């Protein structure tokens, strides 16, 4: 058998067992390094906002569950309200457009929540103070202030529900 003969590999396998092990080891090291570097500068809410996919979110939730901070409480839903303040964009990691929304209706009526809209995955929403919005996303209820994020389509093949922002008849996702 020549060195280039792949007949010794099990059928259907893209990598050898050693190659798969090395790939997993590198990915685990990358994720651990990412989590450690984030944890030194960010609180648990910021960590969740920096997560780039559902697996990262789940890993970050587990990390915060075992730390001294309270576990993140996330509620997926549709929220309506009025923009009360435009905030500076967060340009670290995934870029987010930030603004404050005074919620109308539902159980959070009258509360101010921070919107973190990922502008790396969805277009910027041209909101102004006083803009009326409908937003579908994940509300982190034990953050101060509460943070509504994941206001865009789910990444690639993620099982996470899609989010959006409706403004002036347009849907931004």
Report on this structure.
The protein is α+β, with helices and mostly antiparallel strands. It folds into two domains: 17-65; 74-172, Beta Barrel (OB fold (Dihydrolipoamide Acetyltransferase, E2P)). It is built from three helices and seven strands. A hairpin with a 6-residue loop joins strand 4 (132-140) and strand 5 (147-149). Helix 2 (44-50) packs antiparallel against helix 3.
CATH class of the largest domain: Mainly Beta
Total count of domains: 2
Count of helix runs: 3
Looking at this structure, what is the CATH superfamily of the largest domain? Nucleic acid-binding proteins
Spatial sequence of strands, sheet with the most strands: 1-2-3-5-4
Mean pLDDT equals 73
Question: What is the gyration radius calculated from CA atoms?
Answer: 20 Å
Provide the helix percentage. 25-40%
Q: Which structural category fits the helices and strands?
A: alpha+beta
What is the H/E order?
Answer: HHHEEEEEEE
> What gap, in angstroms, lies between the N and C termini?
54 Å
CATH architecture of the largest domain: Beta Barrel
Q: Which sheet architecture does the biggest sheet show?
A: 5 strands, mixed, barrel
Beta strand %? 25-35%
Overall geometry comes to globular
What name does CATH use for the topology of the largest domain?
Answer: OB fold (Dihydrolipoamide Acetyltransferase, E2P)
Q: How many β strands by DSSP?
A: 7
Short description:
With 173 residues, this protein is of the alpha+beta class. It contains three helices and seven strands. A five-stranded mixed beta barrel has the order 1-2-3-5-4.
């Amino acid at each position: 058998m020549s060195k280039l003969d792949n007949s010794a590999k099990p059928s259907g396998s893209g990598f050898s067992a050693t190659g798969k092990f090395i790939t997993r080891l590198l990915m685990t090291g990358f994720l651990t390094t990412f989590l450690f570097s984030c944890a030194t500068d960010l609180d648990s809410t910021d960590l969740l906002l920096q997560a780039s996919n559902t697996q990262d979110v789940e890993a970050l939730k587990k990390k915060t569950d075992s730390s001294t901070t309270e576990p993140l409480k996330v509620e997926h839903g549709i929220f309506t309200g009025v923009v009360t303040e435009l905030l500076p964009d967060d340009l670290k990691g995934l870029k987010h457009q930030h603004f404050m929304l005074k919620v109308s209706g539902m159980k959070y009526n009258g509360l101010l929540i921070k919107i973190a809209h990922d502008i790396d995955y969805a277009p910027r929403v041209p909101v102004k103070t006083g803009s009326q919005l409908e937003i579908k996303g994940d509300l982190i209820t034990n953050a101060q202030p509460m943070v509504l994020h994941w206001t865009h389509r789910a990444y690639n093949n993620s099982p996470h529900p899609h989010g959006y922002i409706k403004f002036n008849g347009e849907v931004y996702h």
